[in-house]
Each structure stands twice: as C-alpha cells, then as structure tokens.
Write a structure and sequence with these properties.
About 80% of the residues lie in helices and about 0% in strands.
Length: about 240
Amino acid sequence: MLLRQGDHRGLSADRQLAWSLAGVAGAINAAGFYAAGLYSSHMTGTLSIMADHLALGDAAGVGVALAIVITFIVGAAVSTLLINAGHRRERHTIYAYNILMEAALLAGLGAADLWLHELRGPALVIGLSFLMGSQNAVVTRISNARVRTTHVTGMVTDIGIELGNLLDDLYHRHTLARSSPTIEKLKTHVPTVAAFFAGGVLGVMGYALSGALMFLFLSVILAGFAVPSLLTERQAGI
C-alpha cells in the first residue's frame, strides 16, 4: 500500500490507501473539534475563522487560526522534504516511514493530552494540524494527486463533477464503456468521503469514552499501515 508511487500503483492500492487513511483523518479531525472546538485539517474554514476574528479585532483568535494554518503547511513541507530525501536515496519505503512518523507524533500528542489536561485546547489542534498536513502531503505525492484523505471539499466537488458527467452520458445514451472511467472515479471518491465521515463519528465516540487514549489507539492503526511495507523492504532487500 505504501511502496509504489504514481503510475506504478494500481487503482486498488490507491483505494485502500484513501479509504484507510481517510477514516483515520476523519477521526482525528472530529475528535479535535470535540476536544477544542477547532478543526485540524479544515483550512478553508480556519481561514474564514481567522478573517472573522481579524474583522472583530480578536487578536487571540487570529493567532490560534494562523497557527493552525502554519502548522498544517509545515507538516506538508516536512513530509515533502523527507520524501524528496528518500527519493534521492532510492528508499522506496519513505512513504511508510512518513506514516510511521505520523503514528509516533500522534502517540506523543495522545500521551501529552492524557497527562497534561491543558492540552485539550488549541495546542492539541495545532499539533494535530501538523499531522494532517503531513498525511495529506504523503497521500497526494504517492498517488500523484489521484486521491486525498483530508480534502473533503475537493472530493465532494469531484463527486459532483463525475455525477454530472454520468448524467450527461446517460442523457446522450453513450455506451457503458464511455462512462466506465466516471463510474470508477465515483467508486473511489464516494467511499473515501464515507470513510472520513465514519471515522469522524467513531473518533468523537472514542474520545468521549476514553479521551486521549483514542489518539493512542489511532497511532497503533497508523503504525499497522506502515509496518508491512517496512517488513517487505527488509525481506526483499529493497
């Protein structure tokens, strides 16, 4: 799931990656909102909040929103630097190492939130925003932007576009073969959005029941995605 990149990846690998990590991203994003009233991956909404606070003269609110945006960007930049370095060294598992790094950082945030209750506020969401930026960069790079895991607005837009294309094909009575690429895209995007939503529901329920232990659980899941690729590298001598 995390070894091949771009055109060397099959549709099945892209779907498996998108559905799995979208579920985790949905859980992280919704749990962060439940804990602090802020989203960690919703940059459109965060920029709107920042504009709102700026217009109202709320400097503290502007600062928090700006920090969330900056840390998301930094997370994406850090992952990109690691991926580029891995490519130069021909490390095919650099994406797995990125996800493993995300798992370790998420476990650290969960532990800090567990022991330092004051993290249950903007500081927690700022840390989660770094992780979401990192994950989005990994998925975008490994799939050549064919799939995303946190950019739900873009995915919902793609669903609308492909539904429009499908209706147009049906209206003009085009063959099923002509509509096949459209249907395949819908089969990718619709379950990805559903996985993000389901992850959000489970994330809030998990945080409500167990608090920061939920983040530790998610970190184990992320590590579970990365470890098989690393073991494959070791066995094959990649």
